[in-house]
Task: structure prediction
Amino acid sequence: MRKVVVIEERFIYNSFMIPSPFYRTIIILLYCVTLPLFSFQNKGSKAFKTKSAPFRVLEIRQSDVTYQLWEGFQLMRNANAGDAPSQHELSLRYLTGKGFSFDTVKAAQWMKKAADQDYILAKFNYGIFLNNGWGVDWNPFAAYRYFQFAADKEMREGEYVLGLFYTDNLVVPRNYPLAYEWIKKSADQNYDPAKDVLAEFDKRGINGVKVPEKDSVKLKPVASKSGKPQQPSQQIIQPILLEFEDDKTTQVDDLTLLKELFNEGNEELRNALGVSKILSDSLQTDSTGFSLIKQASEIGNPEAMTIVARCYERGIGVKKDKLQAAVYYIRAIRLDSRRAPALLWKLINEKNVQAAFNQQAGKNVPDALYVISSLHALGLSGSLTDEQALQFLQIAVSTSYIPAVLDLGNCYSQGQWVKADKKKAKEFWKYAADRGNTEGKIRAAVAEVFDGTVTDAKRSFEELEKYSAQGSVLAQTALGYCYEKGILVPINYMQAVYFYRKSAQRGNQSALTALSRMYDERRPKEKEFLITE
Result:
């Protein structure tokens, strides 16, 4: 569920998009872009509280309309008189449309007035405005300063958010020990989101002293028969924003994979399967459930592809087929899946698996040709030359094998094994689309967005929105690009950041590169903001 919680006297302003406890806590307060909703918060919280205003005490309660008008009048008068808590409260009223017309610009102006008086709640909350671009220019670096002020004043929410900044490597350099220190301070004040992240830190060996280097999954380049190193399309599975590189992906269980699919914003699939069904104790879904997940995979949902691969690998809901498992793991890797590389590596290192794949490739089985060619491209096999790998892929394409068609389009797009040719890449993707493949349709649409050849802006944008909601990282990245560059829609940097983050948190390297670029373009010259990684 996506929700934003805004408080007045008893409310705390939070936001989170993902139901998983860890993901929910790390995104809380930072990257919310949806409209606010109301929800109660425990009395121990400091954030967004205001003083009890004297105009709340009336001997005779008027009608609701009269009372709201009187309350609004008194609030405005006190705010204009310079009362910081009233300015803070007025800002929230404009932000939520409670008693005042919804106006983020006025909300930001009043919050800034209260923050300028060092009112700690307003300092923290104005940081949220800056970080989200609400009524002000998007400025995460200035936001960091406001959160730092709140943290230095021992505000537990400020301590928590400041700690998160040190895991991100976008505003300030990643520093897990310092992140641990600040988040522990927040947890020591009994702030539950901080407790959740602290538990995750402890599980991963991040204890404020040193960060162990372990369990990073790497796809290493191998030497081809020509002696030149092969460059895999994804060299390292690295931390994405608030993720950790020491994630033990080789030990991932089925429920973890399902939860990650559930987390990734695939609303349509989630509604179709239902919460209780998708979050069962195993992957023992019925044929309908498997079919829905497979459909999601064809949209370009890397989490769904990984689950389909797992099903084929273990024979869950479908006949066991390790070759098909490899196909889907590879396709997931093409979309920068965090989990698939380690799972594929484990699969191909099972006894006789690669030998079986090679034997089938010798018989020109398209799936096997595709897998052997892709293993070479990923740097996981050195048995072929580049020319042979390309030939295997082309033979598979000649049989209209769609995964190979998509990948040959990728080759022309990236200039891998062939001379780069964007036009030819789109031809392959459209060929796949014309045969009912949704990923091909999305890739062609995204290419049109990036090269500026979109002919029907409204239809194209609506399709990107639809596929983004269905979990396509390609569509999410393209939407980010549209908002950043003003293609199909007006420029909106915060919306661009929102979609880039949504995709990058799932491992998409193009989105992460774009996101980092947006931060770098606005990076102040101060030493503390210098990131060298």
